[in-house]
Structure prediction request, 535 residues.
Amino acid sequence: MALVKTSEYQRITKELYKKNLELVNANKVLTLLQQLYRIMMVVSTMEELTQGFINVITSTLKFRSGMVAIEKAGRQLRIIAVTQSEINNTASKLIGSSLSQATIPLHEKNNILVETFQTGKKRTTHDILEIWKPLVSQEKLKEVAEKTDIQSTLVYPIIFGEETLGIFSVSLGRDAQDMTRFEKRVLRRVATLFGIAIDRIKISQNLRKTNKRLKQVSALKDEFVSLTSHELRTPLTAIGGSLSTVLEGYAGKVGDKTREFLEGAYSENTRLLRLVNNFLNISRIEARRLKFNMVPLNLNKVATAALETIKTQAEEKKLKLIFEPQENLIVQADEDKLREIIINLCANAIKFTEAGQVTFTAWRQGEMVIVAVEDTGRGIMPQDQQKLFRKFEQVDGIKASKKKGGTGLGLYICKNLIEGMGGEIWLNSEHNKGSTFYFTLPLK
Amino acid sequence: MEHSYISLAGAIVKEQESIIGPLAWIEAKKVPGLKVEDHNVKIKADGKKVLEALVEQYAKLFGQASVEACKEATRRLLPKMKGTEIPGNLL
Prediction:
């Protein structure tokens, strides 16, 4: 085995020492930065952030005091965080109010805080008059200067990107030249981190404001939709009732031409009423105001009544509407909402099927009933299936499609109604081979 | 004055400990006039000379980097002392 020469051994030892020293310093910096990051993660206001930062910096590096000021409205620097220290307390007393409320105009001359902010460069001073000049009279400051043991103050700009956001200062009981490399290194890193943290808080505050405003607007919109829908629904129902009465001949014989016009008006009125109902449902879903009157229901009865209302739509397209009741199924559901779901799914199937049939079936599976609406339409592409149950999406992936009419709200409403009754909805579909929508409901 | 030298010696050994571990205390024990007990130091001779010897003890083993570490460790404390009282290798 080769022996290591003593000189080589000494060289290696010294090198290892250097590496260790670098690691120790890096570790100290990291520990401090970690503390600052932790503060960054938990605070939500500018005041909490800057106070937390300056407290950690001054206590870790054993500085006499520290302070943070942020630019306000492009006209002044507002002091928002100060450490509890003799000099800051004295300055507060001299100002006659809390130091953290004080502002310094940006046009102030011979003030090192303003100068650092304007130039974006670090400044050092041995004269506290340069810091407090506009806030406290020179005579009073001289008294303070004589009493304090502060020898130097360093002021760093807080910069993020191209913008100077403010400044922070630290005061030392010794000359700034006696600062260790570690201290200088940390302060440089902290200045950068300060910029990131303050920018983050600003973004977060703006987001909160915007979010609050959006919530207010959204609440207003929901209220408007809800009110309008209610107001529209009543006259639409009355019109539908009257048209139906006339069409059934209760107001006298109806000629063929007149019947054609009246049926058109009735059909459009029904479509409008469904649209209004959809909006009303949406506003209830969004406001979480959906209420369910859950009672035992005969599924076959509800389905028969629901399918009766859309029978003409299928006939107009020469489609077979097949209903295959398997057994007497009693489900626990809200009758109006169940009818709405069946109408919605079957009307959709009719709308998107050009030839063939739409089949409604239901069967028992465990504690649930599975309902299926199958069509022979063009099917739905896999990438569109993901979007189906979102608001304003339609099966061909076209938002609020004008091609087929409708709002793209039907399946979103169905999903919410079904889930509200304890069931779930899904589909199987193959392009050009039709689609089957399934939903479940609890058995009584 | 002796109190200042004790503070300086303590700061130096603790700084070295953060870099090289318990070896810092073992080496400090080898310095004449420096008494080490339970991670505390006492000075039993001329403080200035003892401190110079302590810095030298680390320098012998670890070179100039260890002297810089000693300077860093004492930089905060030195302004309180007169220039003539400060050990030469800490200036």
Chain A touches chain B through 18 residues (CB under 8 Å). Residues 397-402 of chain A have pLDDT under 50 and may be disordered.
